[in-house]
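During data preparation, a discrete fold description was generated, and the record follows.
___
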Amino acid sequence: MARRSILIGVDGSPPSDAALRWAAHEASLRGVGLCLVHAFAWSLFGVDVRRSLSWGEAHRMVAGAHRKAEKIAPSVHVRSEVVTDSPSIALIQRSAEAGLVVLGTRGHGGFRDLLAGSVALQVAGHASCPVVLVHAGWRPPIDDRQIVVVVGGDTALQAAFGEAELRGIRLRAIRAWRPIMPTGPIGRTAMGAPLTEIERDEENLLIRALVPWRKQHPGVRIIESVTCDSSRHALIEASRKAELLVVGAREHFGAHTLALGTTAHAVIHHVTCPVLVAREHRHHRPWMGGVPNA
């Protein structure tokens, strides 16, 4: 796989098809290659019967996805492979050489009451590069395009500004806050501070947090939003008009840790727009838009 290409996991499910369309458009936009991977799990006694595709069907499915990607993005170099491994392990291992991993929120099998499947969550939590999760039904945006990010960490802001600049669209930066103490009937907290004063302080915090990124990306148009709400709910509401939602994930320490954090985990399950999970690793710098770090 060419370094910095887009790696996509395919399995023939509706979310996977939506992710393929998204990835093909992105590869064309960024000027990078596209690598399609289908992981075919084997049991100790041959083919795992829990899989809905036979070995031959898997190859035919991937070949069809390959042709579809070439049709969507004729200028993009596309390669594909079928591997014998678990989907999450295959994608996480290959993410070390990718610029971006893309997959559907839920593929074949799994628990139907969960919008985001276990493979999506595992890859989003442990990949070595940014991961984008795409829900079934995704279509290219037409108007009112914007990137949405909640202000709270540099990793998500860096990725969000890069994506907004790459696309030439607006960035909605959200500062979500809640009073530490409950409010009384006259709009004051139990500590006596008026809510208007707290909100003004939060607005100043947002302005200061955006200063260095404005300097690095002077062409990005910014919509500043300060809201008395949880980060999770604010992002879910803003995502209804978003082209892409950007969330940060903390450094992971093991295969079984909750690497995404509660806000990112909740957002992935409840929004309908594509979600980019950005993480800054000690030995892997974030991929900024279409321009790889040197």
Q: What stands out?
A: The helical segments are 14-30, 55-72, 87-94, 118-126, 154-167, 195-216, 231-238, 262-270. The longest strand covers residues 170-177. The chain has eight helices and twelve strands. Confidence is low (pLDDT under 50) at residues 107-116, 184-188, 252-258, 282-294.
